[in-house]
């Protein structure tokens, strides 16, 4: 992406800061995997959203004093020893140009620079990008640095900027949508690779290997999330991830997976018959889920509440289940469909932001499903949709076969 995108985003977030304030955002630190190796590093998504930078340990500071906004980076100093192992490192000037910030200093100057700035300016408010799953989770960089600053400058009022950034992230620009289209396209290649190797006796992990090979071959960074490849009785578990069972004719194979491209996610679900043809009962409920998704596609448009997609799906599925005798009252459908239908998609698979009325530029999932444990029937169909001025565009339309006829024809030819 051009740095103009990140300059514009930082300007937007600076407008939300109180005057005489400072904001810190952190790329994050590598996580140790073994004695001599770290896990592959991925930057904090909000930091990446504001800078476009992917390297670890970098810190962004946005100050707003007397109405003047200054963007500053603190970056690792080039180390000739590290360069021998990992390649050439950027210097401060290169980072400054790359991100389009006003200033860039090395991290070993950060404490002195920050303390001098706060001491010499009427800074009253300290913004951080706080996130925490639970109270006993490991202390974050943001928490620790905030504590250090407040200990030194106890008059600072601490504020969280996370919600403002999250709500900005709901709206995707043209470059973000292009990245998501590419992630979806590659996901389709991966699903095709699975279908071409779907047969009696294949193992779930073998299908996962075919999928992940296709992702890397076509240029994805990898999985946007750990793939769900669930056959037979495993298809009824919403987040099954073992992927270690053998598939047999008569089973359904439920896939929930997605590629990650330039940090943007795809999130696609499909369900296929292992033997190439649906049984009569499998086909009945597959059509129920497909009709439910089509109803959601018609429903999605600006101004509708994102969470009402559940009501749309419940209505369709309940009608099918009542006709079949699976339930006696519409309210009982929650026994067989108990999850949400639509969530935002973007830099995170389950992307952030307030869940309220849909607006143009948002990208959401559509994932109705039905799960009948006593029969080993689990069906989910999920696509990704861009909200437009008049409705929605299904970004994953035509990705892989989706109707019963298309699926059975494809599998027969494969």
TrEMBL record:
It comes from Gehongia tenuis. Keywords: Aminopeptidase, Hydrolase, Manganese, Metal-binding, Protease. Residues 1-136 form the Aminopeptidase P N-terminal domain. Its EC number is 3.4.11.9. Belongs to the peptidase M24B family. This is Xaa-Pro aminopeptidase. Pfam families: AMP_N, Peptidase_M24. It is an enzyme of class 3 (hydrolase). GO terms for molecular function: manganese ion binding; metalloaminopeptidase activity. Its cofactor is Mn(2+). InterPro entries: Aminopep_P_N, Creatin/AminoP/Spt16_N, Creatinase/aminopeptidase-like, Pept_M24, X-Pro_dipept-like. It comes from the Bacteria. GO terms for cellular component: cytosol. One of its GO terms (biological process) is proteolysis. It catalyses: Release of any N-terminal amino acid, including proline, that is linked to proline, even from a dipeptide or tripeptide.
